[in-house]
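Protocol step 4 of 6.
Sequence for NADPH:quinone reductase-like Zn-dependent oxidoreductase (Kribbella voronezhensis) entered exactly as in the expression construct, tag removed. Do not edit the line below.
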Amino acid sequence: MRAVVLDGPVAAGELRVSRVEVPEPEVGWVRIKVEAFGLNRSEYHLRAGLATGAKFPIIPGIEAAGTVDLAPGGEFSPGQQVVAMMGGMGRQFDGGYAEYTVVPAGSVIPVQTDLDWATLGALPEMLQTAHGSLHTGLGIEPGQTFLVRGGTSSVGVAAAVLAKDFGLTVLSTTRNPDRLDLLRDLGVDHPLLDDGNIAENVRKIVPDGVHAALELVGTNVLPDTLRATAVHGTVCFTGMLSDAWTIPDFYPIGYLPNGVRLTAYGGESSDLPAEAFQRYVDLVAAGRLPIRIDRVFAMEEIAEAHQVMETGQAVGKLVVRIN
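Step 5 output, structure tokens:
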């Protein structure tokens, strides 16, 4: 089969498609014929040598969409439409950058849809991370105000549209003034230009600060996001688009504004119940969740796809279609 294999950290332009043996599943595992997969920032971290605990050689890819090819334990039927994500994919064992992938049955979610494969391939990890950040990390409630820091990323786009669907007023940031209208088109109530200091502008709109904020940029802007959040409000740290991951010499009393809560989210496929994923897929198919796909690549264009991801050129999700 065709697959992208990493023998170690490489530049984006060095990624190549190789030919390897089709993997065989054991009982409790499922072999999926991959039709499409989304690109994720964690795969850039793996490829660039920034990930901890990485195993090489490895086929990267923390998600995939396709059909069941073989399930020795009988958990799924051959030909069944499924998505898979997380659970060690692309880190502890070979992931989705391949024509076939073998994953634990617990990482597989069944789905029924007429969406094209590229669209379905964009959804698993993006929706899982957005859903988990909103409901596990932040515990959002209808009627609240919600800030997305890093709003034109794939997770930022998904979080904004899911929050709007749940009844929140959404503020969302971009560093590029040309992308403000794109955020409006996605239903964002208040697009904001991010110059590195947005708390003042947020409080011009919501004087007491937002009820909930999703941090996708990194620790370099986290103090400003905290200042934009209300007393008894919550900030969820989910992403590190800036590759700033840690807080040196963290002193909570000096770092956290009085009464503002800081949490984090980095969950698994189990955090997105199958019925919730199916509902989101149905809403996308009905045109009621405007998920944005920036570009669909062929598998042989994987190097170009990673270059676009690394340089932050995309608004929304990047997807690779296998055939």
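Step 6, annotate. The mean pLDDT is 95.
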